[in-house]
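It is worth pausing here to work through a concrete case rather than discussing structure prediction in the abstract. The textbook approach is simple: state the sequence, then state the predicted structure, then interpret. We follow exactly that order.
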Amino acid sequence: MDHEQAMVSFREGIKASAIVSLLQARIKMAYEAKETGLVCPAWPDDSWVAKLKELGGKAVPLPAEAGESSTSVEVVDQAGDKKDAGADAGEDAGQDAGAEKPEKVGEDATV
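Step two, the predicted structure:
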């Protein structure tokens, strides 16, 4: 009987840990959305914070308090876009010059 009780306790501990992690992720997502101007009334972030405190989870700081900024993410994304745009232009340049693609033969050919 002790083994069964230990297993139940173990499962409950894992479940509580997973719930705390999910709540922290939801709260962080809601804070980041608010920072970018996206507000969803279906996200009850205040009740998520209350539930997190009730479960004894670590509070999620606001992005401004944590020193995080969404602008740094945007700069990285913009740099990636510029790189991709150059790569795409290179591929298109060959096609624009009149280069033909080789025909597919055998299994690769479409019917």
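Step three, interpretation. The radius of gyration is 26 Å. The mean pLDDT is 72.
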